[in-house]
Target: Heme-binding protein
Amino acid sequence: MLKLEDARRIIGAAELKAAEIGQPMNIAVADSGGNLIAHVRMDGAWIGSIDISIKKAYTSRAFDISTKDLAGESQSGGQFFGIHASNDGRIMIFAGGIPLKQDGQVVGAIGVSGGSGEQDHAVAEAGAAAL
Model:
């Protein structure tokens, strides 16, 4: 089970990576039910990315897959084409969401938004590694 102190550590590591690459980000951590534990909007991060970061965390937990991988499977002709229209629009199908695992079990997820897909994913990976 993720605790607030875990979420803060994950967000802290993600913030360091975002600062390293020079891109302010919105960073969200969700629990095993996909519910928000904590969120940070770094100074200068886009306001429109707040919602996206939270939804990326939800998506990663809801399907236990990175949003980067889900994006590849949700394109026209893919097995999950149209999935973004499910769950009342809460599904994000671009990079930046990663499930968080402890002892092989998914215990939550991180969602990052504010840069390119590659930047969002790299920042999310840095946060996930802190768990």
